[in-house]
Amino acid sequence: MTVDAELVAMMNAVFADHRTAHGPTAGPELWDQLRTLGLARLTGAEESGGSGAGWHEAAELMAAAVRSGVRVGLPEHDLLACWLLEVAGIAVDDNTRTVALLDESGTATAVPWASTAQRIVLVWRTQTGEHAVSDVDTGQVRITAGANMIGEPRDTVSADVPADGATVSEATVTTLHLKAALVRAVQVCAAMDTILELAVEHSSSRIQFGRPLAKFQAIQHMISDIAAEATLARTATEAALTAAVGTTWSAPHLEFLVAVARSCCGHAASVVVRNAHQVFGAIGTTAEHRLHEYTRAALAWRGEFGSVRSWDERVTTAALQAGGAGLWELITS
Amino acid sequence: MAQRLMPIPRLVPALDTEPADATALRAEVRAFLDEQRAAGTFTPAVDAWLCGWDEKFTTALADRGWLGMTVPKEYGGHGRSFLQRFVVTEELLAAGAPVAAHWIADRQIVPSLLKYGTERQKQEFLPRIAAGQCFFGIGMSEPDSGSDLASVRTRAVQVDGGWRLTGTKVWTSGAHRAHAFIVLARTAPVDPAHRHAGLSQFIVRFDGPGVEVRPIISMNGGHHFNEVILDDAFVPDDMVFGQIGNGWQQVTSELSFERSGPERLLSTFVLLAQTTDNMARQRISRDADLGRLVARIAGLHHMSMAVAGALERHEPADVPAAVVKVLGTTTEGDIADFADLHRGDHGALPQQARDLITAAVDQRPGFTLRGGTNEVLRGVIARGLGLR
């Protein structure tokens, strides 16, 4: 599961260079570059123009974008929308995409990147109770622009439910939810790892009372807690990811592992964000300083595709179903 | 934005998938524990690795080859991997089984003996530890040396044929029942420039002359801890442990085994399981904090496995062990508090459940103290991050 270091370095360079030249927003020029490098559809099947890589590589790609503070709906495009099209047997091309899960009224809320995507993969429940998928042009749906707290598009999509679509199984839709949840877990982890790096750097260089902040025990302890929580979140996320990849997303306990990861990430973010801002002092609360690119992102992402509490609830439900006698088996399964 | 940050190497190694033989071993231990519970051999208890002294149970484990697992066969052990031992201990801890009698010997004395013991010491102690017949205590802390271990004042003076030890050790769990402990003592005066120099370790028998064991009664009336007074106690040369003057390095190595195990997150697991049952039966209200705690224990289980993998590969594990211990001991304490928050005095909880909660909240303060306080361990993590 170790990803080639040169590949990771290349990923980091792409986003870091984009950030320097163009700022945080991903425009057509970044997408063109990602396509040229085979990163836009990193995990897509090679026969349909993808690069055939796996989720471990994709996790590094997501983390690279987060580290450079480049906001791009790349995981939604590659890991969710294009994956779903492949499963549904629908042809994939170079257009950027996202996924919208429509309710009975044909509406989907908080759809990531709908307003900047070129096409949207619609998923809906048919009258016979099956799930159907259709790949439509954004002109065919109504998009009401919205945004999360870091300005990423989170839009409302309304559509006249298409008359027909490709049928996908219930299990596929469940997997779609788990994949979406894990995307955010990976992003929160990357943000927290960067926060740790920033906190170590700042506390080592900032002098107060005649010595670096890092020499104060109170500061050391706050940063140690950042490191510990970020590590727990990362371990839980990697455990879910490893189980998912190892079983092609069919592990029976995968939902539990994803819920564990999301719960750990969410609660870790509380400590990491609080302590980091405390370490940075007032400078960290300014627009000018880059700390907020990671702290606000961690908070925004931990609540997407399910609130932290909803994941706690899922773990609670799993625990109650297992009962006291089955709890340890649930944890070690 | 062009500025590049120094990437921080990961504090805990990446996770490997559990090998099939380890999973099979889990099933074997679970079946054994089910049998024992059904036969009423033990009642699952909180903190049973400190408080649950049951030599018959220890013998039963030894009979199955689950003591001294990593000891080579020529020393009466079983030549199994560190990861296999990890799996067995995890299962025993999760069940709240009474493992205190052999715990310290099996956890830290075995690896220390294998690393630093003389041939004669290995021959003498390892087979008996593996057979569940020789129990050890810890001789590190003193009345004036808690977290600051380098300040120990117990002195060892060389005499004809050995050493004479004088000083007081405290918090020696099980000294009133165990056979021996490894004492950290000063063999050279403190050099303020090199505080860690001049320390040495000695294997000292509790029944020897000049050794007196006095109980330290815990606030709930329990007796696990002791004070051990060494009054000119003679230790023969062949019971010098490791090298004279190398005590600090040896004790640090011992601590990495003491700190890294699954007991640093599972001391209250039986209470978590019982609280789950009480919630499922609606004796207490549904509370999503249960899920939060279960998720943390699940994450910590994976992290603890990763540390076991590092120890197996002989990688330095002091920083990852500190990460697991800080988070794990906090969480096992939070489990005690969570159960207590739901307790009340008129609820539907049976007495047995209340007793378990009481035991857990009484044991809780010790979780984040023993084996190095969380404050010391945060310092270890900070050093790993390059802050100090």
Strand order of the largest sheet of chain A: 1-3-4-7
Biggest interface pair, counts: A-B, 68 and 59 residues
Q: Mind describing the biggest β-sheet of chain A? A: 4 strands, mixed
The total domain count of chain A is: 3
Low-confidence spans of chain B: none
Number of helices of chain B: 13
What quaternary form is this? Answer: heterodimer
Rg estimate of chain A, integer Å? 20 Å
β-sheet strand percentage of chain A: 5-15%
CATH architecture classification of the largest domain in chain B: Up-down Bundle
Compressed to H and E, one letter per element, the order of chain A equals HHHHEEEEEEEHEEHHHH
pLDDT under 50 segments of chain A (min length 5)?
Answer: none
Shape of chain A: globular
How many domains comprise the coordinates of chain B? 3
Q: What is the residue-mean pLDDT of chain A, rounded to a whole number? A: 97
What does this protein look like?
The complex is a heterodimer of chains A (333) and B (388). With 333 residues, chain A is α+β, with helices and mostly antiparallel strands. Chain A folds into 3 domains: 1-72, no CATH class; 88-168, Beta Barrel (Butyryl-CoA Dehydrogenase, subunit A, domain 2), CATH 2.40.110.10; 171-332, Butyryl-CoA Dehydrogenase, subunit A, domain 3. Chain A has helices at residues 5-22, 28-36, 55-67, 74-88, 170-205, 217-246, 254-280, 291-302, 308-332; strands at residues 97-101, 107-112, 119-125, 131-137, 142-144, 154-158, 166-168, 207-208, 211-212. In chain A, the strands form 3 sheets. In chain A, strands 1-3-4-7 form a 4-stranded mixed β-sheet. In chain A, a hairpin with a 5-residue loop joins strand 3 (119-125) and strand 4 (131-137). The two termini of chain A are 20 Å apart. In chain B, a hairpin with a 2-residue loop joins strand 2 and strand 3 (162-170). The mean pLDDT of chain B is 95. The chains are: A alpha+beta (333), B alpha+beta (388). The interface between A and B is large, with 68 and 59 residues.
